[in-house]
Amino acid sequence: MTALTIYPDTQPEQGEIFKDIIAIQSQLKNIGVQFEQWTSEQELASDADQASVIAAYATSIDKLKADCAFQSVDVMKLNPDHPDRTVFRQKFLAEHVHEDFEVRFFVEGRGLFYLHVDNKVYAVLCEQGDLISVPADTKHWFDMGENPKFTCIRLFTTPDGWVANFTGNDIAKSFPTFDDYVAAL
Q: CA 20 to 30 Å from 90, out of 135, 147, 165, 176?
């Protein structure tokens, strides 16, 4: 289930939770975050490669490319048996910003985006069908859990793809992990 929890950034135990998609979209719109839900134009095999995933969402991707001048698209897929899952998780758990806005569409599985805006942290549990667009220079981090299982389409306006500028703030250590967040829902 898609969910949003808004916390004061100094009180990770005091969150207000939203589970209604319209309410989630409204809360995120207030901070400039686009949130949508998509459906696939075709069924995907469990072992679908990057080209197959992109082809399945070609119409929606092409529309976004035209609207936002995206120059590159890729697919990130992690499973519990991925040999580098711990390395990837640690990299994404560090608070960072991008000069580019960040767009992710969850083809399968789920992950937890944390957006640190003003004096609040917005924890957005994204699941299959969810698209999130985080504005440039928005402080955030991402937790995929100890046993990740997700496939995401990532779109970039630069040919370099994912480039992070880490803030050095260890705020992520204060907030519930993906596994704790999901267990508490």
A: 135
By mean pLDDT, which of 30-39, 44-53, 79-88 is the weakest?
44-53
- In degrees and rounded to multiples of 5, residue 100 shows phi and psi of -100, 155
Q: What are the Cα distances from residue 99, in Å, to 105, 166, 168, 169?
A: 19, 11, 16, 18
CATH label of the domain that carries residue 137 = 2.60.120.10
Predicted TM-score (pTM) of this structure: 0.92
What are the two backbone dihedrals, phi and then psi, of residue 93, each rounded to the nearest 5 degrees?
Answer: -75, -20
The pLDDT value given to residue 156: 83
What range defines the domain where residue 85 resides?
Answer: 3-184
Tell me which residue of 87, 95, 73, 89 sits closest to 165, measured CA to CA.
95
Residue with tokens 């969402």: 57
In which residue are the tokens 């075709």 written? 42
Report how far apart, in Å, the C-alpha atoms of 50 and of each of 21, 47, 57, 171 are.
28, 10, 11, 33
Which amino acid belongs to residue 5?
T
Return all residues near 26 (Cβ < 8 A) that are at least 6 apart: none
Strands 102-117 and 120-127: antiparallel
Separation between Cα atoms, residue 78 and residue 58, nearest integer Å: 21
User: How many domains does one find in the chain?
Assistant: 1
